[in-house]
Specification:
Elements: E1 6-10, E2 19-24, E3 27-29, E4 32-37, H1 39-51, E5 64-72, E6 80-85, E7 91-96
Antiparallel strand pairs: 1-5, 2-3, 2-6, 4-5, 6-7
């Protein structure tokens, strides 16, 4: 759990003309685009290899990626409503109950 209540949101295939809205209750949270290493990629590939004493491969290392966004919630247990609208008007939404379980078989 992040002690600062920061939440990392992965929006795969994000394009600059998409809109992102994240709410904590009725409050709209500021969303910041960040370039970070994908935590799921780290635990799915690099950590699993290290756990069996295998060497990470240089051809599949975790690099910074720019399809992540960060918000700061007021509580580590608040529920967030995430809504992403693409350039065609398609809306994708998720209600994120926190703390959210994090494991390598996530979808």
């Amino acid at each position: 759990m992040n002690a600062n209540n920061e939440v990392l949101i992965n929006i795969w295939s994000y394009e600059k003309d998409w809109s992102i809205e994240v709410k904590e209750g009725a409050a709209v949270l500021p969303v910041t685009r960040v370039s970070v290493k994908d935590p799921l990629h780290i635990i799915s590939y690099e950590a699993k290899r290290l756990n069996v004493n295998a060497e990470p491969t240089t051809s599949f290392v975790t690099l910074n990626t720019s399809h992540f966004f960060k918000v700061t919630a007021t509580s580590p247990t608040s529920t967030l409503s995430i809504k992403v609208t693409d350039r065609f008007g398609n809306v994708y939404s998720e209600t994120m109950t926190r703390p959210k379980q994090f494991y390598y078989t996530m979808k």
